[in-house]
Amino acid sequence: MTKRDPCTLSNYHEWLTKHTTVNLSINFQEQAVKGTISLDLESQTDRQSKEIVLDSSHVRVSDVKVNSASTTAWEVRDRVEPYGSPLHISVPQGAAKGEIVQVELGVETTSKCTALQFLTPAQTSNKKHPYVYSQCQAIHCRSIFPCQDTPDVKSTFTFNIRSALPVVASGLSVEAPEEKDGNADGKLYKFEQKVPIPTYLFGLASGDIVSAPIGPRSVVATGPEELKACQWELEGVEDFIQVAEKLIFPYQWGVYNVLVTPPSYPYGGMETPVFTFATPTLISGDRQNIDVIAHELSHAWSGNLVTNASWGHMWLNEGWTIYLERRIGMALHGEAERDFSAILGWKALEDSVDLFGHDHEYTKLIIDHEGIEPDDAFSTVPYEKGFHFVYYLERLVGREAFDKFIPHYFTKWSGKSLDSFEFKETFLDFFNNLGDESIKSKVAGIDWDAWFYKPGMPPKPHFDTSRVDVCYKLAEQWKNKDFEPSPKDVEDFTGNQKLVFLEALEKFEEPLTPEKSEVLGKVYGLASSKNAEIKSAYYKVALQVRDTSCYQGVAEHLGQVGRMKFVRPLFRALNKVDRDLALKTLEKNRDFYHPICKALVEKDLGVTGTN
Ligand code: BES
Ligand code: ZN
């Protein structure tokens, strides 16, 4: 095996992690986790490699043992930006090919850890207890403990986590062989992950967490005050699982649970195995944002079983997942629903490509990640261009044939990582051997290089526009001075249709008057919507036309959500019309936001942070 991930400093072509045991105690007082990590590493060479190199970033290492014997022959070398400080551990005799060497490390996180957010009680919704959660994708696991931090390596995991508060993790919960009440440092929570996973899927959260069922094999875990609303919102999850199972094959992770995080969570969702982590903004009281759950669930196959070998091939994770998410939507709500969602995605892709520039490296399906921190290259491109590639392949061979390929592909690569070239080979092998000459000649015509390496927009397919046309038609009516809006206008609109309508209003050459904006918010119930997506989109329209009646509402809204997708655009818009209020709002909520979010908003507003 050769090393094909440029974002790791580890020598994983010489040693491969097979099992990881994580023994960590959560110290809320010091906002750190501390303990030992043990890695079972399989030698890939015949005694040729005399050292093991692991990724680490801002994490303290001590007491290194190799096969249970203490050693001093190790060092954390100088930082190599942006990938961190390689930990070199000497194995003087090497090991025979296939032999396992066990490395044990004492570890302690530092305040520079990029994977964990600690919240004080004041930062949580009921303000009673502290909270901590991890976010490891793409290369942050190395800041919790040294590891081979690459999606090209998969290991089984044992988690032994000690905490004063309930813990969830990316493994199945098993009874801890411990006294019920624990000791002074809290109780021991034990989990096993028997399906090998890459380190970016390592997930951990602890806080005032309770859970309730949302399906026969699913619970939602969240704060006690939020539990009922979360349970109602997510009750349909079993329908999603069943559609995906029919399309691919049975769900492999035992149970599918959702952790609804504190409101400061800066993302929409994360596909942590066993426990998807999700923003509370999904809990909108109308079940209109649960496509994010269909997305994270789909990762249980695309991403978590079949994994991109490096972040430059991220479309294999995200493009396939968007494809599966939309197939779930299509199975439950019809084909027009998939096209509607694809049209929204197409627009997001156009925005990204315009922002980067049509020739930019990051607008290619395969991105060169050498020397790059994957988060910096992150955009809609792997999602939507990736979706369009998979969707193009589906239309080329026909849905019936493609639906035979789906389980074949996921079975062949389950438990492994692959790159785009292995995908191409798998696809061609399958269709060349299907015994259908017409399909065979069609796949011979695929311009793989253009799809993989051409920057900019892919070819545009024909979409069924029936569901967007009504949104644009309503927006057109708002151009008419005598238009009398009524709640009936949007009565049959889904949440996403309201978003398309609001996006159209935002693009008007002649904007609405502030008075009309106020009417818009009231008559359609947008300003009072519990759906953060809709509320944020309305506030963007209202701020753009300086509708002062909304300013206070915007400021309040900014104190309730920490998801960057909403927070950053609203701060930028508020700053344009009332800088003083924008600064005051940031000051008031600075302890509420995730550090990354806070830093980015400060940058957006042109202020330097005080901490
Ligand atoms: N795996 C991603 C989240 C992610 C990507 C975290 C890159 C860190 C680095 C997750 O599956 C995702 O795509 N979340 C989306 C939701 C989705 C419906 C597109 C999000 O957070 O908005
Ligand atoms: Zn995703």
Mind sketching the topology for me?
Blueprint: E1 15-27, E2 32-43, E3 51-54, E4 59-66, E5 69-70, E6 74-76, E7 87-90, E8 100-109, E9 116-119, E10 131-134, E11 155-163, E12 167-169, E13 172-174, E14 187-197, E15 204-206, E16 210-215, E17 218-222, H1 227-233, H2 237-247, E18 257-260, E19 269-270, E20 275-278, H3 291-298, E21 306-308, H4 315-333, H5 335-356, H6 374-377, H7 381-397, H8 399-413, E22 416-418, H9 420-432, H10 437-444, H11 448-453, H12 466-477, H13 495-506, H14 514-523, H15 532-544, H16 551-558, H17 564-577, H18 579-589, H19 595-605
Parallel strand pairs: 1-11, 17-18, 18-20, 21-22
Antiparallel strand pairs: 1-2, 2-8, 3-7, 4-5, 4-8, 6-7, 9-10, 10-15, 11-14, 12-15, 13-14, 16-17, 19-20
Helix pairs in contact: 2-3, 2-4, 3-4, 4-5, 4-7, 7-8, 12-13, 13-15, 15-16, 15-17, 16-18, 17-18, 17-19
The structure holds ligand BES and zinc ion.
Overall description:
There is one protein chain. The model has no long low-confidence stretch (mean pLDDT 94). Helix 17 (564-577) packs parallel to helix 19 (595-605). Strand 16 and strand 17 (218-222) form a beta hairpin. It contains 19 helices and 22 strands. The chain binds ligand BES and zinc ion. The site of ligand BES has 13 residues, from strand 19 and helix 3. Zinc ion binds at residues 295, 299, 318, 321.
